[in-house]
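Blinded run. Sample ID left blank on purpose so nobody reads anything into the name before looking at the predicted structure. Input follows.
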Amino acid sequence: MLAELTGGGVRLGPHTGKCGEDGTIDMAYTMVLASGQVIAGHSTNTPEILPDGRIRPNEVWERYGTPGSRGTSAIEEVAE
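Blinded prediction complete.
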């Protein structure tokens, strides 16, 4: 898997990873922010299928370097 994130506060953000048989995405990323700061990290995203069929990836992430940080997040698919 190869993806690129841009927009908002991110100038450039390549992401590289793999998708497991269970749909879990394990990836590493780097990002150049609008401020010029460069960050790097790793995340594991586990998909959750909601009762209405939408997908919510539940993410556990870690940002390397100074200041390093860890956290969780969830991004919910928007119904059309």
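Unblinding after everyone has recorded impressions. The mean pLDDT is 92.
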